[in-house]
Task: structure prediction
Amino acid sequence: MVSSAEREEVMRNYDLYELIGTSDSPSESEIRKAYRKQALKYHPDKNKSKKAVDIFHALSIALEILTDESLRQEYDNKRSAKVALKKRQEAFDLRRRQMQEDLENRENDSIRRSKSSGPVSMPRTNNPEREAKLRRLREQSAMLRTQRDARIRSESHR
Result:
């Protein structure tokens, strides 16, 4: 008899159907037949690697889980939830990649357009009021600059 912690660990780390080497919905006899085949392959007396010992132990737990109807139902539910989560993540990753590619394409198009059109300039308008206001602002700015420069010169001569 195996502890529930060991069962949980095997269920979390392995796809039991893949581990045993069966389809997704095998009969109990198919499970036992596939188990015997894999057990011979990974038995510690026949295969001396450390990995084989771990796999053999996992095979024993997998057989216990897949032949007990309630444990198998629990495993199937967890497995289907894991598969659904993986599909959602893959779809999310696909959308994220598409969005990233779209953004990169727009950025590259913008860079190409800016290189081909030269520097960006503000459109000229024929608004006399706006032009007069800009002229006054330029004059005020020039006057303030000259006053500041004069003040700095006079302070530096003291």
